[in-house]
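Holo prediction — NAP.
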Amino acid sequence: MSTSPSAPTFSLAGKAALVTGASRGIGRAIAVALAGAGAEVFCTSTKAGGCADTLLAIAAAGGAKAHALVCDVASPDQVEQLAKTVLEQAGKLDLLINNAGITRDGLFLRMSTDDFDQVIGTNLRGVFLVCKAFARSMAKTRGGRIVNIGSVVGISGNAGQANYAAAKAGLCGFSKSLAQELAGRGVTVNVIAPGFIATDMTAAIPEEAQKTMLGSIPAGRFGEPKDIAAAALFLCSDAASYITGQTLVVDGGMTM
Ligand code: NAP
């Protein structure tokens, strides 16, 4: 039986969203995009007042309701408290964007166990903790969306980032497994793998290395946080309801 076609909608009116690591960069751009589409957005940072500028950006863009919360995603207690607060205030969570991430770069022979553990603890274990805290409730809403921010480095590897690449590659396997478990509950789970996006994280890369990277990007420019926000908005929208367990590479063609 065929159903008549209708245009997909990108409106997120009535949805409650959580963006971890929304104090700047990619997380802030995603929070602004989701709020601009009508979602009530909870933004997190590890610091009190860390998301103040994000809330201002959301207001300036005419976004719907937004809130700033403090949470270190590597801390099970803080994540539990975060879930309690969000679910009490919004009554549900529809859209979960696991964006918080760190780097502790260094060549493998010099990489400390602490640098490995910290990156895995935030970028992979942190995503596990946040998903765990919200998955049961999201399953009840049906139509829930989990978007995990990975990296092209999780696909290709990168000298000097064994810890980060391991965490981001792990995120792909984790997300596919979760996608299989939650598909029947109407929750999709996908990864966005950005290439080089101009943020505080990449500002630390030496200028010469940045020039070399730019030369390897067919699009001829570095990505901007809004490029990733657009992909997140799509994956959160009705238009992407039949997409799950996928990794969407957004890198200007760098790794094709
Ligand atoms: P960024 O500018 O350094 O921002 C990182 C965000 O993560 C900040 O909001 C920070 O919040 C938060 N954060 C860090 N540790 C946290 C923790 N333990 N708990 C909660 N929040 C924490 O980085 P970005 O470039 O926007 O990157 C965002 C995501 O995209 C990361 O997952 C990153 O790995 C990924 N990514 C970035 C690029 C790129 O080229 N920029 C490429 C591929 C993937 P506070 O400091 O305010 O606490």
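READOUT: Strands lie at 16-19, 40-45, 66-70, 95-98, 145-149, 188-194, 247-250.
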